Amino acid sequence: MTTAAFTPPFIDPAELPAALREQGYAVLSPQGVSDWLGAPLSQLEALHADWNDLPPDEYLKDGGRYRTRRHACFTVEAGDDAVLEQVPHRAHWQPVEYNALHGGMQRWFAPMLAETIVQPVWQRLLQRLGTAASGMRGAPQKWFVEAHQFRIDTAGGIGRPTPEGAHRDGVDLVAVALVGRQGIKGGETRVFEANGRRGERFTMTEPWTLLVLDDARVIHESTPIQPLEEGGGGWRDTLVITCRSQGFQGD
């Protein structure tokens, strides 16, 4: 039995600040992301090759081998000319209150590749997200940014994009970009009010579809993926970027 896939509720990039303010999340189409960044979509698509060589995530407590990833940290001084700086490589840490499965421990992931970080479109994306976070909170400020490249595969029959379940991340802004997917079913995105009943579900299928969340107001998750054909292979690539005021978690 095939489950119907719901189309993402795309908005115009100009509506992003209002959408975050009014409902706590927004979804941009790939062309919307291109327009928002002022860069051709081909520059974003050129980044995808990095996802073919991500090292394994050695910290999965469910014993799975379905996730590979890289990680990097930055600061963004939001303003008219957002200033982006990479900080020395550091562990990723979350409290158990936000990640009951993997919280409370330092997780040292392989660093992102230098050739990715120097790409103008990459830097533009982080700067624009810092500006969006400042708009969401009402004033330009310094943001502590973490970036995660993920590949979830179906080599073991099933892959779990969010093994911790529906969650918040303990930050201010969360951005989830679908970078690509191949040979899979599932991977539905679900967004719920943290203090209410309203929710939305949709499946991101087009590369560089971008979901932006106010982490204080909504909970999110992605459902497991399976191969389209029994015994077949498949994967789902995403980029997750978080912006947090007042320092990195764990400091």
The general outline is: globular
Record field, number of beta strands? 12
Uncertain segments of ≥5 residues (pLDDT<50)? Answer: none
Task: Name the beta content range.
Answer: 25-35%
Percent in helix: 10-25%
Largest sheet: 7 strands, antiparallel
| Content-based structural category | alpha+beta
The overall pLDDT, averaged over residues, is 92
- Order of strands across the widest beta sheet? 1-9-5-12-4-2-3
* Helix and strand element order: HEHHEEHHEEEEEEEEE
The number of helices is 5
Distance between the termini: 48 Å
- Rounded to the nearest angstrom, the radius of gyration is 17 Å
Could you characterize the architecture of this molecule?
The chain has 251 residues and is of the alpha+beta class. The chain is built from five helices and twelve strands. The strands form three sheets. Strands 1-9-5-12-4-2-3 form a seven-stranded antiparallel sheet. The protein has a three-stranded antiparallel sheet with strand order 8-7-10, with no helix packed on it. A two-stranded antiparallel sheet has the order 6-11. A hairpin with a 5-residue loop joins strand 7 and strand 8. The chain is globular. The protein starts with 15 loop residues before the first helix and ends in a 7-residue tail after the last strand. The model has no long low-confidence stretch (mean pLDDT 92).
